Amino acid sequence: MDTERTHDPITRTTSPAWLAYTASATGLLLGAAHLTVTAGLLLSETQNPTVGYLAWMLVPVLIALAIAAVPLTLIDPRRARSPWPRRACGAIAVLTAALALFGLSALAFGAAPLSLFLGPGPYALACAVAFTALTLSTRVPRP
Predict the structure, then answer these.
(1) What per-residue string of b and e applies to 40-73 under the rule 16 or more CB within 10 Å gives b?
(2) Where are the alpha helices (DSSP H) in 74-120?
């Protein structure tokens, strides 16, 4: 009886699917949070519906949809061989980390802790963590 097992070396070019879906969901969460806060101000009549405000309401949501689409390209082995999805995930991780620091910096100036949920801080922090983990989990095959 042969007790030794031979294993082929693992060469994974795609990231774990659950991690890509998690990063995509955090991108959608970021967009949904922005839409909820800005639409809430519009519906409570705190803000007048101007063209500039509607653009401020919808353009970040479209950017968040694009952010949510990038991790899904890393699941497909054909697209995962290209360097751009991994680089885009890394850039998104850095940008959302900066956005989280900017959003959470109000705590240093005495803002009420619950008011942080009206800004991008906690949502961008979740995005930064998920995209950093996704970027670091994706390995490129060696020639």
Answers:
(1) eeeeeeeeeeeeeeeeebeebbeebeebbebbbb
(2) 77-80, 83-104
Q: Which amino acid is at 94?
A: V
pLDDT in tens, 97-117: 999 999 888 888 888 877 778
Q: Is the pTM of this model over 0.90?
A: no
Q: Helix or strand or coil: residue 69? A: helix
Q: Is the separation of the CB atoms in 31 and 68 below 8 Å?
A: yes
Q: Which two tokens stand for residue 95?
A: 């940008």
Q: Give the 3-state secondary structure of residue 119.
A: coil
**Vertex 119 angle, CA 86 and 37, to 5°:** 105
